[in-house]
Amino acid sequence: MTINSPKTSKTDGRRGGGKRHDRNRPSKTQHKINTEANPDAGGIDIGATEIVVAVPPGRCAEHVRTFTSFTGGLRELRDWLLACAVTTVAMESTGNYWVNCYDLLEEAGIEVCLVNARHVKGVPGKKTDVCDAQWLQQLHAAGLLKKSFRPAQDVLRLRYLVRHRDSLVRENAGHVHRIQKVLTEMNLKLHHVFSDIDGVSGRAIITAILAGEREPKVLAALRDGRCRSSEADILAALEGNYRPEYLFVLGQLQTQWDEIRRHLANLDEEIAGLVGGIGPAAVPTAEPTRRPGGKRKQTGKNAIALDFRKESFRYYGVDLLEIDGIGSGVLTALMSEIGPRDNLLESFGSADRFCAWLGVCPCNQISGGKVLRSGTRKTRNRLAEALRLAAFGLDKAKCRMGEYCRRMKGRLGKAEGITATAHKLARVIHAMIANGRSYDEAQAFRTNPGMERKRLKTLKTLTEKHGFKLIPIQ
Questions:
Q1: What CA–CA distances, in Å, run from 222 to 47, 75, 125, 209, 250?
Q2: What does the radius of gyration of the chain's CA atoms come to, in whole angstroms?
Q3: Is the pTM of this model over 0.85?
Q4: Could you tell me if 84 and 42 are in contact, meaning their C-beta atoms sit under 8 angstroms apart?
Q5: Burial track 244-282 (b if 16+ CB lie within 10 A, e otherwise)
Q6: Measuring CA to CA, which residue among 404, 432, 397 is closest to residue 419?
Q7: 420 φ, ψ to 5°?
Q8: Domains of the chain
Q9: For 1-16, what is each residue's pLDDT tens digit?
Q10: What pairing do the DSSP bridges indicate for beta strands 88-92 and 64-68?
């Protein structure tokens, strides 16, 4: 059965005798679909300045109305939906215009189904806001829309601050790049003798230069004792051109860098307070311990000042840092984007659903018995990005996960191998949280009978190719 979108009459804006178009008037020719799945469903088309809402016909004399996007208009929208006995509504995730409407309706007890705009775009006919609202209402009433994942309100507050912190870290990196540019113009080659110009040695030397110090030996004495560069190289790198305009710009950039670092420190305190208020109040009886042979994982300089091993163990009941490649970046994304164990298992009951939401598993498109496309789904997911970064760092790791990463990169290619390793990490994380078990490398890489038969077949092919024969051991 072909389903066509509702159409509205054409607008006639001519002077003298032209019939004026009513923007809230429902379309006369509509193709009805079965609305028994959600009979009390509504549809909302979100815009920057106005919001068009459609309710089931018969609930009101005017079942399509337009409201302003101001707070007063949102309250009128909420009251009208409640008066029409609407219990659930569907809206597209248009920019961030939908957030306030979503929160207000959710507080009123109306279930909000946030859908991807791509899922409802393939609609023929003329496109108007009224048509979009009516089409969303019909699809939602028929139960044809998938609800997008949105974490709980307490996790949303944490996610907002973590994302804001990530933007500050990126902005701070831009300041570091501009500082390095000015130092290069001054012919001070600090980046050749120090690993980071924003490290302990680099910051101390730049601060002394801005204070008026120019003697290379005095500046070189400010370096950290762990610096591996020779004193001769450091002295040579500190001979530069100290022009006034360079020093002025360097001072401004250093002030901005220090200001962002202060903001990051305040953010870390606020985030730590929010993290402590989410999840189980009681700490599990068992304390997280590193597995035998496991190395102590270092925390990056841009990581949140938080005890990730303890907090993640309280959130999920297992020590996810036991997994090779998993660090503070993955745990930060997991805790802020999804939340504790109960939230994860409620929204993603299986590893398949978890990996599909991340967009790291193959999304096969099959038609006529043929696979048209087998790549991963194009999506932007912060947790998936963190898992890919974790997989990227496993390239030279001497462990089973590192071997898996290298094997996948050799078989599929670099980018595809990284995604396949991120897929493996996501499945291991979900299995550990769902089963409440510690990381077991042998269990994570166990082979099934199908894999054994495939390996045996490959060995037989190779031996026959070279003139040998496999004989089973008696």
A1: 57, 61, 71, 11, 19
A2: 30
A3: no
A4: yes
A5: eebeebbeebbebbeebeeebeebbeebeebbeebbeee
A6: 404
A7: -65, -40
A8: 41-141 (3.30.420.10), 154-276 (1.10.287), 308-453 (no CATH)
A9: 334 444 444 444 343 4
A10: unpaired
